[in-house]
Write a structure and sequence with these properties.
By secondary structure, the protein is an all-beta fold. The chain contains one helix and 63 strands.
């Protein structure tokens, strides 16, 4: 980057900038209310308001934005819906969404067994406790239940799967901790074959189970295992009928010792990794210091990385407190695992993030991306639907803590500033994606009350800056506070508190709400900007038929005698002074108003010292990483996504210091997608690629990449499938680095039987091959394309 430059952002007026006043209009719990500078919403009858919901908390004025802030509203019973109450404690909560706006829960219940029984429950989308049932009871210790929704082969949620640890007997009839599993349907009834089914009862102890659905009615579980007296990591897949799919008592993910060194493998976690595959993360000490490792596992139990896994970071600093999630990459239609951890170097703690590609590449470099330095007691990660990763961490000691968030793109670039966004308090301890490009967080206030928060795609708080209070009671520890992934109107939060004298479990849903039908009028609003010149336009977001009126005047009293003017969405506001009132009409129950925005012209100078961003660069559909080499064809297609917070001005793509022309795929003031291809094929060897972007103020960002062209043919990127105009046919697309005779093979994915094989001539660059589906029975198949003298690439496809 060059030194930052500044520029007045409105060249026509020399000075001036459009400023937004954002008025969030949501479901209210009061008839009227005041904010810092007198803006409020009124309604004719208090009976028309909901008794629960959101209210204006404060007005925030920051730089060029004035926001009437609204906190999210709890949509169920105030202070939470009770799920498990009674004598003795209920704790160790696990929760997952039910796919319809409700949630499944599992927990340890000491009501009838001081050692703990395992219970599960379902709360529907209205907050009603649908059912609650004992999963496993007895006079032995049962603990650490984990619950996930069960998804069948058609993609439908069919119930929930619970895995837990219990003191039982191993194969030698000796006491040991074993892993068990059950599956319930949507009515809370156990599926046949799933009643406390054994996952592992190998000798000695097995504990800390984690589980995901296999999307075929079964599950994949991972756990810590002491069968040979030292800790290892094992996994097992359970079929749709409750029986083990792999070797009895599971397969080894990480051995208890490697080359004679004890690993002390611990803290297993699991998430999705590409189609029908899973990423398993854990920590171990094979290299004398604690490090984080990952292994890829498919539905057949085959390892995708080297035996005992690969290190997430090659740094020799000790690492702990890691968390694992996955992000969806739209361009590849697949999931990738994301890691966050705490790393200590020279007595200083730091938070780091990492992304792992399917071929084992570390997406953020060999040592990951440093997020923050300082005392970091907590960190967490969530993935977005656009491939970004959102990291949350806490910095501080004693009673002084602050929460931060950061978004990284797939190249590891920070999108929310170099230091991330400081959310202050509450202390956020868990995070899930909001299903868009933001996230929901679970946190605690200064007095340990459970709180909720949402951040948007810019990392800004959507709800009140202190979060939404779930209940005015202290929750009982990090393991007793969690939230589900959002599926309808936000996530479900679950926690345990002692309001009744012992630990009881409660749930609550918090969401962005909206006004019901009716007429809403703001109080008289005075624009506080000292450089105010005139009003601009009005716009709003919502559904249904919404109409509006507006009036402006030079003084508050003059508004009383000013007539209302009809307003259109995106239309201009008549400007008669800095005082304004807006009236919104929601005429039917189907009308939904979520926000309204007023813009105005300010005569204040605005300095632009922020740099534009190179969000991503691809060559032959492969994501490039600055400083790392990538194999490409001799005529690679280069695509770059460029962004700026204000206005992009120019861009340049150079190969070996020579600019090449580009075309614009899409563009706006703040986001460009450009594409280029060299007119002369690249010679065999390494070539430099430079991408440069400049904003309207002259701030410039540039990244350098290395392209490698080989003499031998190589398929770069992945094989993609598309539809064909010919019935019973699909088209497979692949890119070659050099022209070659290629061999095409189709095999049955489950049996590996060769179904079809043929050869064809392929050209340098993009190629297409038509795949005739006639004669192929329904099922999964593996397409392998191998250039003569080169390495083959495979991809799966389904025949319905």
């Amino acid at each position: 980057m060059e030194n930052p430059k500044f520029k007045v952002q409105n060249p026509k007026l020399v000075v001036g900038h459009w400023l937004l006043v954002i008025i969030w209009l949501l479901y209210l719990g009061y008839c009227s209310f005041d904010v810092a500078w007198g803006a409020s919403i009124t309604k004719s009858s208090s009976a028309e308001f909901s008794t629960t919901g959101a209210v204006f908390e404060h007005t925030k004025i920051s730089g060029e934005t004035i926001t009437l802030k609204i906190s999210g509203g709890g949509v169920w019973t105030e202070n939470g819906v009770p799920v498990a109450t009674g004598t003795n404690d209920q704790d160790q909560i696990s929760i997952d969404g039910d796919g319809s706006g409700g949630a499944y829960l599992a927990w340890r219940n000491k009501r009838n067994n001081p050692f703990g029984d395992i219970y599960a429950a379902h709360v529907d989308s209205s907050g009603t406790l649908h059912w609650s049932t004992a999963v496993a009871t007895g006079s032995v210790t049962m603990e650490t239940p984990q619950i996930v929704k069960s998804i069948n082969s058609s993609g439908s949620v069919e119930g929930a799967i619970v895995v837990w640890t219990a003191i039982g007997t191993d194969a030698a009839n000796a006491p040991s901790k074993n892993i068990y599993i059950s599956k319930f349907n949507s009515a809370g009834k156990v599926f046949s074959g799933w009643q406390s089914a054994v996952v592992c009862n190998a000798p000695k102890d097995q504990d800390k189970p984690q589980v995901v659905s296999d999307h075929l009615g079964g599950a994949v579980a991972v756990w810590r295992d002491y069968r040979d007296g030292k800790s290892a990591i094992y996994a097992q897949r359970i079929k749709y009928d409750g029986s083990p799919f792999w070797t009895t008592n599971g397969i080894t993910v990480c051995a208890s010792s490697i080359s004679g060194t004890t690993t002390n493998a611990d803290f297993p976690q699991i998430t999705y990794f590409e189609s029908n595959q899973y990423a398993i993360g854990w920590s171990d000490k094979r290299d004398s210091y604690e490090n984080i490792y990952v292994q890829r596992l498919n539905n057949d139990g085959k390892l995708g990385f080297s035996e005992n896994g690969m290190a997430v970071s090659t740094s020799s600093n000790p690492k702990d407190n890691f968390s694992l999630a996955s992000a969806f990459i739209p361009s590849y239609s697949t999931y990738i695992p994301l890691f966050v951890w705490r790393e200590t170097s020279g007595g200083v703690q730091s938070a780091y993030g990492q992304l792992i590609w399917g071929d084992g590449r570390r997406g953020f470099g060999n040592t990951g991306t440093q997020l923050a330095a300082g005392t970091v007691p907590l960190c967490a990660v969530a993935g977005t639907i656009s491939g970004e990763s959102i990291y949350s961490w806490v910095v501080g000691t004693g009673s002084s803590y602050e929460s931060f968030v950061q978004m990284l793109n797939v190249s590891g670039e920070a999108l929310w500033g170099s230091a991330g966004k400081n959310l202050g308090t509450p202390i956020n301890i868990k995070i899930v994606s909001d299903g868009e490009r933001g996230a929901y967080l679970a946190g605690m206030s200064g007095n340990y009350y459970p709180c909720a928060q949402r951040i948007n795609a810019s990392g800004d708080e959507v709800w009140d800056e202190n979060g939404v209070l779930l209940a005015p009671y202290q929750y009982e520890g990090e393991g007793n506070f969690s939230l589900s992934a959002p599926e309808s109107l936000g996530p479900v939060y679950a926690w345990a508190d002692s309001r009744n004298g012992n630990k009881d479990i409660f749930v609550q849903k918090v969401t962005d709400l909206y006004y019901p039908s009716g007429t809403y009028t703001t109080e008289k609003i005075e624009n506080p900007d000292p450089g105010f010149a005139s009003w601009g336009s009005i716009s709003w977001e919502g559904t249904g038929t919404i109409t509006a009126e507006v009036k402006t005047a030079a003084t508050s009293s003059a508004l009383d005698s000013t007539s209302w003017n009809p307003a259109t969405n995106g239309g201009s506001i008549p400007s008669s002074g800095k005082w304004i009132q807006v009236r919104m009409y929601l005429n039917s129950s189907s009308d939904r108003l979520s926000s309204a925005t007023l813009s105005f012209l300010s005569l204040n100078y605005s300095l632009d010292t922020s740099f534009p961003s190179i969000e991503s660069v691809r060559a032959d559909s492969q994501i490039l990483i600055p400083g790392e080499s990538c194999y490409v064809s001799s005529s690679p297609t280069i695509e770059a996504t460029l962004t700026d917070d204000r206005l992009l001005s120019s861009a340049d793509i150079k190969i070996d210091e020579v600019s090449i022309s580009y075309s614009t795929v899409s563009s706006s003031d703040t986001r460009w997608v450009i594409r280029a291809q060299p007119t002369t094929p690249l010679s065999v060897g390494s070539h430099s690629l430079k991408v440069e972007v400049t904003d309207d103020a002259g701030n410039t960002t540039r990244n350098t990449y290395t392209l490698a062209v080989e003499a031998i043919p190589r398929i770069v990127g992945t094989i993609s499938f598309g539809s064909s105009s010919v019935p019973n046919e699909i088209i497979a697309t692949y890119t070659l680095t050099a022209a070659a005779e290629t061999k095409i093979e189709i095999r049955n994915l489950l049996t590996a039987e060769l179904i079809r094989s043929f050869s064809r001539s392929s050209i340098t660059g993009a190629n297409e091959v038509n795949i005739d589906l006639s004669g192929l029975s329904a099922g999964a198949y593996l397409l392998t394309i191998t250039p003569a003298g080169g390495t083959g690439v495979s991809a799966r496809f389904m025949v319905p």
